[in-house]
Model the fold of this input.
Amino acid sequence: MTLLEVENLEVEFRSGGGWVRAVDGVSFGISAGEVVGLVGESGSGKSVTALSLARLLPSPPARYAGGKIILGGQDVLELPESRLRSIRGGVVGYVFQDPGASLNPVSSVGAQILEVLRVHRRDKANAAEVVRLLQQVGISAPETRARDFPHQLSGGMQQRVTIALALAARPRLLVADEPTTALDVTIQAQILSLLRDINRDLGMAILLITHNLGLITDMADRVLVMYAGQIVESGPAKEVLQHPRHPYTRALIRSVPQLGLDVARLTAIPGAPPSPGAWPGGCRFHPRCPEVREDCRVEVPALARVTNDPASRFSRCPYSSG
Done:
């Protein structure tokens, strides 16, 4: 069953010279219980896409210039502000990469969880449910920790609290935006194990946004590769990472260090991603592409189904989708 359907989403921001498009014609879906990875370099539009799902971008300076976001059978972009409160948290919950900035520094973690329960699950707005949620995300001595303030917790425990906050409303989709970036390797593994358990035990769909392709291999059923505001490749995670079709996906994979390989230098992607509003003509990756052809500089490629492929694969490169 399809839980989320994004159709031709366009998001723009006002700048000194007018409106600048940051997300350009993005389309994808997520089924109930599915884990979907969203990868790409910084500035590719991943977080803007994720925040748009619950219309969390302030407007102005942002505006939703086109498209649809069908979530729980409703078009989020058409809902009045009064209806969005039930969507935010109740249908889609968020876990952000900086838990310290996500939590209220002057309120105990228990009080913050209780506030979410009062809005979305009034029948469970009690201390016992707060303790149960903290226990569910692996926090020891939850009765004591519920009285703590965020600054009294380690980074890993703060991230667990933000996950408990997201779970409190029982959303059907959890958006995890770089949830392990600021954590050490051991805590990263614990957080990822927790997300796996949530997906398996609660049947909750997860949109995992990351730079780390290793996380996608371990966690995701499908992957979306984003570059310069567009999806450039999508398909089953293992298929895409083992047999990438788009030159950008191949370049991302080559830039990842691998154990056991004796190389003098990593293979970096030349240049830098273009800024929104300064996208090149033709294929947006062509100035950095090692496989560029002359018509790549002028022809705008569509995201097309990869032919002769048993999996549901799409690529925005005509030379790799045939």
Notes: The two ends are 30 Å apart (CA to CA).
